[in-house]
Design a protein that fits this description.
Layout lengths: L6 E6 L3 E2 L2 H5 L6 H11 L5 E6 L2 E6 L1 H9 L4 E9 L2 H15 L4 H11 L5 H16 L1
Parallel strand pairs: 2-4, 3-5
Antiparallel strand pairs: 1-5, 3-4
């Protein structure tokens, strides 16, 4: 099988799992507008995925994935990060969330608390370093 790590891939939408953390934080504001945009323009923004034993996991783009599903679209274009450990997935999510919540440090703190529950101490220190770097920007 071709190596698809760090490459754009086209996948059957049903092969992508959306983790619970994405589902519980799902914000429906502007969701209908997103669906209209996808209907008009197609999928403009790629989702970010990683490989798992069960298929693929959505790291970023859960709203886009949900909109595509609701529109009956069967394939999706995604950026595949390859096989990641749980700690690596958490660190990637933090980097992505940092961009989304750059001015909302309370949300960043809550995300760090959630994703650091099972991190090794050196990974937790890395997360804190990113957080404090944000505070100083």
């Amino acid at each position: 099988m071709e190596n698809t790590r760090n490459k754009l891939v086209r996948l059957n939408i049903d092969k992508i799992i959306v983790p619970e953390i994405s589902i519980k934080d799902f914000d429906y504001s502007n969701f209908e507008r997103l669906k209209k945009s996808i209907s008009k323009n197609g999928q403009i923004k790629n989702i970010v995925i990683c490989e798992t034993e069960l298929g693929f996991e959505c790291i970023d783009g859960g709203k886009i994935l949900q909109a595509l599903k609701e529109l009956g679209i069967k394939t999706v274009i995604a950026f595949n990060l390859g096989l990641l450990s749980e700690d690596e997935k958490k660190q990637v999510r933090l980097e992505i969330f940092r961009d989304y919540f750059q001015t909302n440090y309370v949300n960043i703190g809550l995300i760090i608390k959630e994703i650091s529950k099972n991190l090794a101490s050196n990974a937790f220190v890395s997360l804190l370093a990113i957080f404090f770097k944000l505070l100083n920007n």
